[in-house]
Write a structure and sequence with these properties.
Layout lengths: L1 H49 L14 H8 L1 H32 L6 H7 L8 H12 L4 H7 L15 H24 L3 H9 L4 H12 L1 H16 L3 H6 L7 H10 L4 H33 L1
Helix pairs in contact: 1-13, 3-7, 3-10, 5-7, 7-10, 8-9, 10-13, 12-13
Amino acid sequence: MEQITATLPRITRPRTRRREWLTDLVLLTPGVGYLLVFMCVPLAQVALRGFGLLAIGEPSHFTLALYREILASKIYRDSILFSLYFALGTTVVSLALALVTSALLQVNFPGRSVISVLYKIPLVVPSLVAAFLVLTIIDQGGIIARAVARFGVEWPELVHDRWGVGIILVLVWHNVPIMIVILSAVMSAIPQDVSAAARNLGASPWQVFRNVTLPLSLPGISAASLLVFIGVFGAFSIPSLVGAAYPKAISVVMSTEVLDRANWALASALGTIVTVLSAVLLYAYYRLIRHQEAALR
């Protein structure tokens, strides 16, 4: 009898674990299935299409001709570099503004509640509406240009310019609130005792921000930067509306290849390059943040 009882746990534990594994699998199926169907499968299809596979209406065979065509074309190279340029520029400028604003919002001052409401307005404004607003304000025929023209001042070209100033301005205006929401939540979670101890030891407000608040906010900084960079790198509506005729954003070029030329294969190759570049840059940034976090421990 004792021998039978001793063997019971050995029999029931594998069954219990198997049931738990099946239960977990059933619970995860909707989410995992959604990711596979709507994310992994399209990405795999785009990647294979860029290599000449899974072609529709034409023979499928592995080839690198599309990537050689992209690398040999100055138009495609400039489009990729231009998208990287305004994506990184938007991320850096938005991060600088969001850090300052988020740090100020941690301090009680008159009008703080009003600012807390005003900075969230761009969150409910669609991208196209934001682009039109910026056009009416900073374009050469906009409000500011007409106001300074009375004093004989010639307003510079900030929209449809080669350097993408208008694109960056609109994207910064639209993405700064996103970063502020994330960074404010992270900064508000920092214990006040830590900042108070630094102030009692003679640290100035700038030293507290640089040596205490900023290092402890690195997880929020990395998350906000990644979200903004990913969204901006593939942005279409704003670059197509306020961007210059050349160079164009890579998303605009991909849209032209698909809609005007029906060149799905080349657009897939461009999409694969964009995905790989995003993954490489995000991985490098993630490694940098992890290294800094490890150095602070």
